[in-house]
Amino acid sequence: MCRWLAYIGEPRLIEQFLYEGPHSLCEQAQHSHKAKLGVHGDGGGLGWYGKPQEPGLYRDAGPAWADPNLRELTRVIESRVFFAHVRASTGAPNLDVNCHPFRSGKMLFMHNGQIGGFRQMRRRLCAMLSDSCFDAMVGGTDSELLFQLMISNGLYEDPEHAMRRTIQDVDALRRSEGIREAFRATLAITDGSSIRALRWASDSAAPSLYLNRMPTGALVVSEPLDEDTSSWWAVPANCLLHISYGSDGVMSEHRESFIGSGAT
Fold this sequence. Notes:
This protein has helices at 15-18, 25-30, 68-76, 118-127, 131-136, 142-152, 159-176; strands at residues 3-13, 44-48, 56-60, 78-86, 102-104, 107-114, 184-190, 194-201, 210-214, 217-221, 233-234, 239-245, 251-257.
């Protein structure tokens, strides 16, 4: 299971969130408190927005905490929207193309969790992809396939509809195949102007997700970056967050139920 963080707000140095503090993301990669796997050494990645509309992307298959290039990038990059991810593989090889975030045009996507019975369903899931999304696949993870399914289902035109339809289609196939292993996911999607974050599971064991509303923006994380429990809100299971931060410094947040076919 992976650990990730998503930030939107006033421009901040990314280093502060990946390396500083008692439970930074790279510290979580070595000593996670809430993940099933305590160590997340199967790669890491960073996606960020600057002046170009399309985001920058850096990924490496080695342990994030030991990656000097990641450390150097985060030391100097200041961004108003960025994603960071540390990976613990559930089967796909340790290759940079299997590391998160994933990028398509102006979109970034990252994921923690697993599609139960993915290998059994993979061929049928690929058949649901548009031709362009099938051609865009370069890795072998369920995460990348989930992203391309959402794009096939209209992520650019209607994000909430695409997310719901994709989750429902994948879970319906899982159940029709008689797969008992659960489908669980926390995921984040951004186009550089807002962040959509989802906590969902087909059973009652959705991976953890937390929100921190700061004076300068908002953080969504797999687990808190410090011990101040008063500043972190535990996102309930089967909940979709939509967070934006305007040029006027006003943050807006919308929450809605995302039951789909999952457990309540």
